[in-house]
Design goal:
The complex is a heterodimer of chains A (about 500) and B (about 650). Chain A has about 500 residues and is mainly alpha-helical. Chain A has helices at about 10-25, 30-60, 90-105, 115-135, 140-145, 150-160, 165-195, 200, 210-225, 235-240, 245-270, 270-300, 300-320, 325-355, 370, 375-385, 395-410, 410-415, 420-435, 450-470, 475-505; strands at about 65-75, 80-85. Chain A has 21 helices and 2 strands. The N and C termini of chain A lie far apart (about 45 Å). Chain B is globular, with a radius of gyration of 28 Å. Classes of the chains: A mainly alpha (about 500), B mainly alpha (about 650). At the A-B interface, helix 6, helix 7, helix 12, helix 14 and helix 17 of A face strand 1, helix 6, helix 7, helix 26 and helix 27 of B.
């Protein structure tokens, strides 16, 4: 197992707090502090990103288990510890967080009020999110999982749009209510295994009849976070009302927490319940793909349309995870990455319009391709990726999930594939309303094309979209070992249980 | 290596014309696009000749694309005769149309964008035809669909162009769902999606079953039908044909390149490519035959009454693609390919000639407002005549060889669907002769019906547009004579090699044994159609009007294209939009949101009050965190 001389995961997790400290202790008048705060936040996030890239380079993809593990006693008597580790499943989710934080910081040009506080909240969010993905102790995971709420709640509630309080409270109540059930599950599982180490938990069998209850608890908490239909209604409000950087972090990173939770807890720890819930999860996934796509088609606001499309993609991810096939789960993981990048790109594009004083009501936009060709090309690229065009990142995840689903059920595969048509419908409607037709208002002709700062956000995202689409092996290669182990363990545990059932039946 | 150059040169051209343009200027961008296209065409022809001389080379491996579990797909270029023939055809036709576009698009403001799209299209099309696995084929398939969308909506200020572009994309995507699921099912059955793996194991899986609707179906039937649904979308076959006529909103060179010669033929190519699988699925083959034959006839009837010069040719394309599927459906794959190549030449010729007419007529497309321009456009007139004769299947033009071969094969299949295909095909031959000469006569002959200012501006097109016409015309004249021995004649098995393997009992093996009247029927019907057209529009112009008044219902039925658009609009499009609004306003806002919103509103009210105290949100959170922590700790202590 590769180890480097220092606890890299803790460094990556807590380094942003150093940035927060610098921000809080800053002196001077408001304007100077604001501009310095931006730089401090950006530099901090870039340094953390550099550590993250080093982590990737040192990572050994051949190993299925956790690497760079760190352990420190915490509540030793209860066998609750500070345990960190990263495997192929969490590696890219951490990197995604690290990559998108600087982009979110660059995207916060519109924040002029309480700038220091805002960037502190963003860096705090980075710490909590990375910690959540890197935790290998259930209690530690839970603490980070909950703590993510704090900065996000503030970001929506303080710097959000007109209905920010409504959106913030809704977001908060939904997610908190969900995670309380996870708390109950956590306590039960700790009692059962005597430890909260996730590796131990994974290898401690749980009676099948209890698994169902635990699974429902996880469904409540992770389902809300992943915006599984019908627990999704907080999402369009939160996405719509959050300030742009908040929306980016919410949509690109935080929405992955739920799917990650399913993969880490629900599937490996509760194999029987997960297998039993498969039809339910397929149904929820398919409904998300079809029903939500229709809802997206009816939207009149660009940001909300993108938000709903995000929910529809969550459906694909859920279907992929619950196929319990290598193709399906890797497809879901890949879709998580791809969706994070693509949705960030789309939201940055809305930010480009907002920063030019334009609204996002679709009927008041149009014809922008004529005067903003670079913007048009990039928005088109992200839209195509969102509708699953081969050659972009969106396709790989989608086809893998379709292939994986086919191994389980023809109809699930077919219905998941209908997302291709519906996704094309709402994305093309969006593209047309924003870029094509004549200008709906003469002012639109005067909008300038992209600026350097906007290129700095959009071009890296665009490059990643193409990289993931054309040569995805760099990423799927890392998924291979842990996912294969996961699928194998899942199959094996089901086999042993059914074998046991047969023995007792005799 | 040559294949590699042929495929990737257009991509380079597209990048230069599209992305690098701001740095190199407009003229250089267009020049680069054309230059790389010429390189591609030269390499494309060279690789075909090399293949013919030295035998085919193994696939060129470019890189890994997807490798997950046992689902693997490479980026690689297949170099069998089927691929090489298509590479040569696509690159040459595309190069000619690039050249033509210099003249046709001279007055356009964003020419580099146009050339970037065209080069990108060519790249995607070449990736499609050289694919060595289903996934790369799908990449090219979607790629050409995308560029088709972009080019139909090229003049994006026009609402009709945008609507047509979206329609094309979405209708194609309906077919693509079938294709994608077909790929998944292929992988499920064969455990691989590489062509060699599939073809080698096709016969072994012929007996496998698959449960669907509670019944056991042969799995290869399902695979074949799913793939064919994809082909129906791309090749505009009946039920998924509605986008093709609307696609004529795009610039005319695009109609020639994408919606006549190359992209729409991709469906036929895919079926031929997958022939080892399709061969194992007799029911699917019957389905393909019926759809193909029906489309040929159906589109032919519509073509007879349309008035837009491009739409007539578009329906003709639809109809000709039906012929190709008819050939593929009866197992005569080489004949389908023969017609595909011939059709590429003469249909591109017809479109470009039509473009030349439109160019001369100040962008008028209604043939009722043309006429009497034969003398002013002599070259275009001759080129259009060549194209029309080739389409109508008159000896010695290309269509004569390939269309007759299709009908011979359909008859030689000696099955009920084969006879159905033959009858449809022979009727269509008459319709084809009629509608194309109706177009020809109304466009070029008789009195001019154009407004005066248009008449004054009628002029022959520049050389840069005429030259490609001449090259294509020689193809329309010569390709039938030159290619038929290799493609479908005595040497066909040697020419296609292992790329197309003909099944046992294929009509390819019993060619030429049909009765004499079967052999001459298509030609006779074609001539009959032409004669009727000359009678109606040359000799007795009052006749068609009288006929349409005598049978108004039938006339309107055809004029409105069998009301497909209206039916789809009423049954699918508008209900879908209503459903979308309903799902949002009722489902999401009222039902799902109703419960939590009641709660949330209460809390929001309370917190609005506290926010006024400035510390509201943080205080609330701290409070909840405290409660949570307390609950957490007490739980632990309690259960311990």
């Amino acid at each position: 197992m590769p180890q480097i001389g220092f606890p890299i995961l803790s460094v990556i997790t807590f380094l942003p707090l150093l940035g927060v400290f610098l921000l809080v202790t800053m002196q001077g008048d408001d304007a100077a502090v604001a501009s310095r705060a931006r730089i401090v936040a950006l530099v901090t996030s870039l340094v953390v990103l550099a550590f993250g890239l080093y982590l990737w380079s040192a990572f050994n993809p051949a190993l299925p288990g956790y690497q760079f593990t760190e352990t420190a006693p915490w509540l030793a008597g209860l066998d609750i510890g500070y345990r960190m580790g990263v495997d192929g499943i969490s590696l890219f989710l951490i990197l995604l967080t690290l990559f998108l934080t600087p982009i979110a910081i660059l995207a916060s040009g519109s924040i002029t009020r309480r700038v220091r506080g805002f960037f502190s909240a963003l860096l705090l969010l980075e710490t909590m999110t990375v910690g959540m993905f890197a935790a290998t102790d259930f209690v530690l995971f839970y603490v980070f999982f909950e703590a993510v709420l704090l900065p996000m709640y503030l970001i929506i509630g303080v710097w959000g749009g007109e209905k920010r309080i409504y959106a913030a409270i809704k977001f908060f109540v939904f997610t908190l209510a969900g995670s309380l059930f996870m708390l109950l599950a956590l306590v039960w599982m700790w009692r059962n295994a005597g430890s909260t180490d996730m590796v131990t938990l994974t290898h401690t069998p749980i009676p099948a009849n209890v698994q169902i209850w635990l699974f429902l608890a996880f469904l409540a908490s992770f389902g809300v976070k992943a915006a599984v239909w019908p627990l999704h209604t907080w999402l369009p409000d939160a996405y719509g009302e959050a300030p742009l950087p908040g929306t980016i972090m919410l949509a690109a990173v935080l929405s992955k927490m739920g799917a990650y939770g399913f993969l880490r807890f629900a599937v490996p720890m509760l194999p029987n319940a997960a297998a039993a819930a498969e039809p339910l999860m397929f149904t929820l996934g398919v409904v998300a793909v079809i029903y939500i796509s229709f809802v997206a088609l009816a939207q009149t606001d660009m940001k909300r349309l993108i938000a709903y499309s995000s929910v529809a993609h969550m459906g694909i991810i859920i279907i992929g995870i619950f196929t319990f096939t290598v193709e399906g789960i890797e497809g879901a993981l890949f879709q998580m990455l791809s969706h994070g990048i693509v949705i960030a790109g789309l939201f940055v594009c809305t930010g480009v319009l907002l920063s030019r004083g334009e609204g996002l009501v679709l009927s008041r936009l149009g014809g922008l391709a004529a005067r903003m060709p670079a913007f048009a090309a990039l928005l088109m690229l992200f839209s195509l990726a969102n509708l699953g065009m081969p050659g972009t990142s969106g396709f790989i995840g989608e086809i893998l999930v379709i292939v994986g689903a086919m191994k389980v059920n023809f109809w699930v595969s077919l219905l998941a594939a209908t997302g291709m048509v519906l996704g094309a419908a709402y994305m093309l409607v969006l593209v047309r309303a924003v870029l094509f037709d004549k200008f709906t208002r003469p002012e639109l002709a005067d909008l300038p094309d992209l600026k350097v700062r906007e290129y700095a956000m959009l071009l890296p995202l665009a490059a990643l979209v193409l990289w993931l689409g054309i040569y995805p092996s760099n990423f799927t290669h890392v998924f291979d070992a842990p996912v294969a182990a996961l699928v194998q363990a899942h199959t094996a545990s089901l086999m042993s249980h059914s074998a046991l059932a047969m023995v007792t039946a005799k | 290596m040559l294949t590699l150059i042929a495929v990737f040169a257009p991509l380079l051209g597209a990048i230069l014309a599209g992305v690098v343009r701001p740095f190199i200027g407009k003229h250089l961008a267009v020049g680069a696009s054309i230059l790389f296209m010429v390189v591609s065409a030269v390499a494309g022809v060279a690789t075909l000749t090399a293949g013919l001389r030295h035998g085919i080379a193994p696939p060129v491996h470019v890189g890994t694309w997807v490798a997950v579990g046992n689902f693997t797909a490479d980026w690689s270029l297949r170099q069998d005769m089927l691929s090489l023939t298509m590479v040569a055809m696509v690159s040459v036709v595309s190069m000619l149309i690039h050249v033509y576009s210099v003249g046709y698009m001279a007055h356009d403001k964003t020419v580099p964008r146009f050339f970037a799209y065209m080069s990108l299209f060519t790249f995607a099309m070449l990736m499609l035809v050289t694919a060595n696995n289903l996934l790369q084929l799908f990449f090219g398939w979607e790629g050409v669909g995308l560029v088709s969308y972009l080019l139909i909506g090229y003049w994006y200020e026009k609402p009709s162009a945008n609507a047509a572009a979206i329609k094309a994309f979405i209708v194609n995507r309906v077919g693509d769902v079938g294709f994608a699921v077909g790929i998944a099912l292929t992988h499920y059955v064969f455990g691989t999606i590489s062509f060699d793996g599939i073809f080698g194991a096709a016969a072994a899986h012929a007996g496998d079953g698959f449960r669907l609707f509670g019944t056991n179906f042969p799995v290869l039937e399902i695979v074949s039908i799913l793939l064919f649904i994809g082909a129906m979308g791309k090749s505009a076959q009946i039920f998924l044909h509605t986008w093709l006529a609307d696609a004529m909103e795009g610039p005319t060179p695009i109609s020639a390149l994408i919606h006549a010669a190359t992209m729409v033929a991709a469906g036929v190519f895919m079926i031929v490519r997958m022939s080892p699988v399709i061969d194992q699925a007799p029911v699917a083959m019957q389905f393909i035959t019926i759809i193909g034959a029906t489309t040929a006839l159906f589109a032919g009837t519509i073509g007879c009454v349309q008035n837009d010069i491009k739409r007539i040719i578009a329906y003709s394309t639809c109809s000709q693609l039906g012929y190709m599927f008819l050939a593929a459906g009866v197992g005569a794959y080489p004949v389908a390919m023969f017609h595909l190549i011939d059709h590429a030449f003469f249909k591109a010729l017809l479109f470009l000639a039509a473009g030349s007419v439109i160019h001369a007529m100040s962008n008028e497309q209604d043939i009722r407002l043309m006429g009497g321009i034969a003398r002013k456009l002599p070259v275009t007139w001759l080129m259009m005549l060549f194209g029309a004769l080739a389409l109508a299947g008159i000896w010695p033009f290309a269509g004569y060889y390939s269309k007759d071969a299709i009908l011979d094969a359909a008859y030689a299949a000696h099955s009920s669907v084969g006879y159905y295909g033959w009858v449809c095909g022979v009727l269509t031959a008459a319709l084809t002769g009629f509608y194309i000469f109706r177009l020809f006569i109304l466009t070029f002959h008789g009195e001019s019906r154009a407004p005066k200012h248009v008449q004054e501006h009628v002029h022959e097109s520049p050389l840069v547009m005429l030259l490609p016409l001449v090259v294509l015309a020689s193809g329309a004249l010569g390709s039938g004579i030159m290619l038929h021995t290799d493609f479908i004649g005595t040497n066909f098995a040697g020419f296609w090699g292992r790329s197309i393997q003909d099944p046992v009992g294929s009509p390819m093996l019993t060619f030429g044994a049909d009765p004499f009247w079967v052999e001459v029927a298509p030609l006779a019907m074609g001539i009959l159609g032409i004669a009727v057209a000359i009678l109606f529009y040359g000799l007795a112009p009052a006749l068609p009007a009288a006929l349409s008044q005598r049978f108004p219902a039938a006339y309107r039925f055809l004029l409105n294209k069998w009301y497909f658009d209206e039916i789809y609009d009423a049954l699918l499009v508008r209900p879908a939009l209503r459903l979308a609004k309903f799902a949002w306003h009722f489902g999401d806002e009222q039902v799902i949101d109703g419960v939590p919103n009641g709660l949330a509103t209460l809390t929001a009210d309370a917190s609005t009050q506290t926010v006024k105290l400035q510390t509201g949100s943080i205080a609330l959170y701290a409070f909840v965190m405290l409660i949570g922590l307390l609950g957490f700790l007490s739980l632990f202590l309690w259960v311990r």
